[in-house]
Write a structure and sequence with these properties.
Length: 307
């Protein structure tokens, strides 16, 4: 199957395309377990990580993934870039094109920024988060984690709890989960549910205690105070009281149910420390799977070869 040039979101992916990423990522997990976890698949390729928003985990994950494939990696930081001097995204795109890099991993605060670049670059573009729109590789690594834990995605019952309105992770997960046949529901205060929720085709709940026992996967989201207007909920303390994943709530989940979080976690707000570190938590598995999944994405879009 010939891949699309770019990975801009999960909404545009078919079932076959999603499974192509997941199957290859499973193979790369085996590579990462070797004493020398490096393959020469992308030797001679140059990958640019272009992060206009601050990031630690995602940028490091992509950088490690590229290096494990033997690609050269150039990391961009807005704090020390010409963007601070007034350079536009279009200027940046033209400069990237002149440098002849093979692939660009971009994070930007504006929805559609990755698509904007993809239409102007010969290099492939991977969206590492564009505003509140999408974050496809996070969703794909979440799907990978679920499949490795349960052996399937179809008919899984998945509940996403928290700041849905401002979460690109929630949107990308909803699109991917529904494409693969999962039951998807959300639970949040009314003010943190997006106005277009009916278009997403998910069940909507407001009382976590009434439904927590019914789901195989509960994904907690970070409260994104930096993207919110004031007054969307009375206080962080009240949010934790009604929507936080406490030890007591986790104890009422299905026996084989798991807890996920895309990170970074606000311990003591959306998830308590003893829950994040419990046997039900697969948060560290998500991080490990993220490197393998991003290796798969870079391999596919850079035209990698198995040697």
């Amino acid at each position: 199957m010939n891949p699309k040039k770019d990975l801009l979101g999960t909404e545009e992916l078919t079932t076959q395309e999603i499974y192509q990423y997941l199957d290859l990522a499973d193979n790369f997990l085996e590579v990462l377990a070797r004493p020398i976890p490096i393959v020469p698949s992308l030797r001679g390729k140059t990958i640019l990580t272009l992060f206009f928003e601050s990031s630690t985990r995602t940028q490091i994950s992509f950088s490690i993934a590229a290096k494990r494939l033997s690609a050269d990696v150039v990391n961009f930081s807005q704090a020390t870039s010409s963007v601070k001097k007034g350079e536009t995204l279009l200027d940046t795109a033209r400069n990237i094109e002149a440098m002849k890099v093979d692939g660009v991993v971009v994070r930007h605060s504006a929805p559609g920024a990755a698509k904007f670049l993809s239409e102007r670059l010969e290099a492939f573009v991977v969206n590492a988060g564009d505003g509140t729109h999408e974050h496809p590789t996070q969703a794909l690594l979440d799907l990978m984690t679920m499949r490795r834990h349960f052996g399937r995605i179809k008919k899984l019952n998945v509940l996403i709890v928290g700041d849905i309105a401002h979460s690109r992770v929630a949107r990308s997960n909803i699109f991917g989960l529904k494409t693969l046949g999962a039951r998807v529901a959300i639970c949040a205060p009314p003010t943190l549910i997006p106005v277009e929720i009916d278009d997403l085709g998910v069940e909507v709940f407001y009382n976590l205690d009434e439904i927590i026992h019914d789901f195989d996967v509960i994904m907690a989201l970070r409260i994104q105070l930096e993207r919110q207007q004031a007054g969307l909920f009375p206080s962080v303390r009240e949010y934790r009281t009604f929507y936080g994943l406490t030890k007591e709530r986790a104890g009422r989940m299905k026996a084989k149910g798991v807890i996920m979080h895309p990170g970074p976690t606000n311990r003591g707000i959306e998830i308590d420390p003893d829950v994040a570190d419990s046997d039900k938590s697969v948060i560290l598995e998500q991080v490990k799977n993220g490197v393998a999944l991003r290796m798969a994405v870079l391999f596919i879009h850079a035209g990698g070869k198995i040697e």
